[in-house]
Amino acid sequence: MRPVRALFPAVFAACSVLPLCAQGGGLSVPKSIEAGSAFSVQSSGSGPGTIYIVGPGQVLKRDVQLGQQVDFAAGTLYNAGHYVVFTGGGSGQSGSLDVVPANKPADVGFLARPSRLPVGLRDGITGAVYLSDAYKNLIMTPTPVTFQLSTPAGSVQTRSITTRNGAAWIAMDSSPKEGAAQFVARAGDISATRVIGQVPGDPCGLQMTAKPAGQKVELETAPVKDCSGNAVPDGTIVTFTETHGDAQTTVDVPLKRGVAKVEMPAYPGATITVASGVVLGNQIRWGR
After folding, report:
1. Mean pLDDT over residues 21-28, rounded?
2. What pTM does this model have?
3. What pLDDT score was predicted for residue 15?
4. Residue 201 or 3, more confident
5. Which domains does the chain have, with CATH numbers?
6. Which of 220, 273, 221 is CA-nearest to residue 244?
C-alpha cells in the first residue's frame, strides 16, 4: 500500500505551510471521535463535490452535494490517529479530526513467562498485559488490571495494577506445591488465561541407608523430595561415591519410584557419600 502522503502530496504540502488543516474553512468536522463511532461532516457551498478523509491506514472518498451534512456510519473510521478532512475540486474547505481508542477493553494481550519453573521461586513468574479496543487500537487510558495466580492445591495470589502507556506488568512467586497454575489477567469483563507448570525444586535433606548384601553393600535413599515436600521426579540423577584409601568409585543412578538404589563393594573403612547435582546428602563410614 502506498503511503497516504504519496497519495495526496499537494494536500500535505499545503498543510505544512498554510493553516489549511485547521478546523474551519467552511468545513465542520468533529474534533475527535471514538474508534468505530458514527460521525458527520458539514460542508459549505453548493453543487457536487468530493470529501476526502486521510489518516493512518485509511483513506475515504465520498461524493457529496456541498452544503449538506454527510453522515458516516459506525465502523467507518477505526484506526486511532490524526485524520485530515478536505474537499476536492478547488473549494479549499478543510479540517481535521482525531480518532481515539475506545475506553472499554475488548481484547487482553497477555504474555506470561516462563511456561514451566520450579516451585518456591520469588518473583519467578512474570506477566505483561496490553489492552486493546474492538478495532485493535492500544488503549492508552489508565485501566485497572487484575492478575490472579491459582494452583490445584488452593493457593491464590491476586494483585491489581493500573496500565501505564497502554501496558501493565507484574512479577509473582511460584507456589510451594507442584502442579499446573492458572495465571489469569482480567480487565473489566474481559480476561485471558495462561497455564504455568510448576515442578519440584532441587532435592532437599537427601538421606541414604546402607546394609550388607553378600560381598557388597546395598545403598538406598529415602524418598527424595524438595524443600517444600514435593516428590522429585523419577529420572533425576543421584550420585553415590565410595572412597577407600586412594581409590574412589562413583555410580550415577536415576530415581525410580522416588528412590535410588545401588550395590557397591563392601570395603571396610570406606566412606560413602550421596549427592544430587550440587545438593549433598549424608555420609556413611562402612564396616569400621
Report:
1. 56
2. 0.72
3. 42
4. 201
5. 4-100 (2.60.40.1930), 107-199 (2.60.40.1930), 208-285 (2.60.40)
6. 273
